[in-house]
Design brief:
The protein is of the alpha/beta class. The chain has 7 helices and 21 strands. The termini are close together. The structure holds zinc ion (ZN).
């Protein structure tokens, strides 16, 4: 008898990467930043890359970019920072910018620059309001200003050569509205090439129900529930709560991956690795190699119907073939438990890779056509 499962993949999302100053100035009209007891250093980027390397993942680094504005372009967007039109980035000549940018550039498979914010909040006449993209009642900021912010985010990425505009987005302060009839913010994000969005759904404003309990499509953007984080946002050197490892996303904030002394960052990374690595070989889970892969796998996990017999697995993806997510991949993973020796063959599916991840448990990477929406794996 064999067992089969389309496992749920996991992606890591790390918020508020990009600040150089760490101090929380929210009580003085400034941003919260990361509230670390020290400023950030290039070793804090190495921590993300090391986490990615050890887990063979590409964690999302949800960037806040105002501290990277080398040309003070944000002076033209007074809503973007606490200094308004008087914006002068104190870090614009910081040589560590180049050092950190080089780390990001040279490790494209271990860190995924992700759209988060410029200054994180939205300043009106010099006073901060939560947050940059939507207000606390779920009202989008003016479309013109939203576009100015997105353009500036892309410009700062370009100037620092931090890669193309991201395909993934995390709303700052988790303020976002799903399913707006005229498209809303999601439609604007889609114009900029965003295909994947994640946020805790208990904080989401919803105009229409999403398609599934933990994902939905909005203007083609695959929107995924982040669930609860394993730590509080300001916790440095934390003990992550494994109860938070059950969903498709491990959400955290940058300090959660770091130590007070940057030389000890590796110890914090190791603790996360020890917690997350076992998920990769669990029958019903795996670690996604990147966002496209992990979020697409979630859709397959929910919507591929399996019928298992003694020597075959029938797969039916009729529901997936009907949706139009712009970033939805046609590749996905299937796990099969069967005693050795064994050989797999596929009908109406391409078998891209097979590996025995633990004795008697196999990981198959498959590619499906849109139609017909059924296929079969035969075990011999
Ligand atoms: Zn944030």
């Amino acid at each position: 008898m064999i067992r089969a499962c389309v496992p749920m993949a996991l992606q890591i999302v790390i918020d508020d990467v990009g600040w150089w100053t760490a101090e929380d100035t929210s009580t003085q009209g400034g941003p919260f930043r990361t509230a670390m007891p020290r400023d950030h250093v290039p070793a804090d980027y190495t921590a993300i890359i090391e986490l990615g390397r050890r887990l063979n993942m590409r964690p999302q680094a949800a960037f806040v970019l105002c501290d990277w504005d080398r040309e003070n372009i944000l002076a033209k967007i007074p809503s973007a920072t606490w200094m308004g039109n008087n914006w002068q980035n104190p870090h614009r000549n910081n040589p560590q910018l180049e050092e950190a940018a080089d780390l990001v550039r040279t490790h494209p498979d271990q860190i995924e620059p992700t759209l988060h914010a410029l200054g994180h909040e939205y300043w009106i006449d010099g006073l901060p309001t939560r947050a940059e993209w939507h207000d606390r009642s779920g009202q989008m900021r003016s479309a013109d200003d939203v576009r100015r912010h997105l353009d500036a985010f892309g410009k700062i990425l370009d100037v620092n050569r931090l890669g193309p505009f991201p395909t993934a987005f995390v709303p700052s302060a988790f303020l976002h509205r799903f399913g707006v009839a005229d498209g809303g913010f999601a439609a604007i994000l889609a114009e900029y090439g965003i295909r994947y969005l994640s946020t805790p759904w208990q904080r989401l404003f919803i105009d229409r129900p999403p398609e599934a309990p933990d994902f939905g499509f909005d203007a083609g953007i695959l929107t995924v529930d982040r669930g609860n984080d394993a730590c509080r946002w300001f916790e440095v050197d934390p003990r992550p709560n494994p109860d938070a490892f059950g969903g498709p996303i491990i959400g955290m904030h940058w300090p959660n991956l770091l130590a007070r002394n940057p030389a000890s960052n590796g110890e914090v990374v190791e603790r996360w690795v020890a917690g997350l690595k076992p998920l990769d070989v669990r029958f019903d889970r795996l670690l996604g190699v990147n966002t496209a892969n992990a979020f697409s796998q979630l859709v397959h996990h929910r919507w591929v119907e399996l019928a298992v017999s003694d020597a075959s697995v029938n797969l039916d993806w009729t529901r997936i073939a009907k949706v139009g997510g712009t970033g939805l991949l046609k590749t996905f993973f299937l796990k099969i438990q069967v005693p050795r020796p064994v050989r797999f063959s596929a009908e109406n599916l391409r078998l891209l890779a097979v590996s025995e991840e633990i004795p008697g448990q196999w990981r198959l990477q498959l590619e499906r056509p849109d139609s017909p929406p059924q296929g079969r794996i035969t075990v011999q």
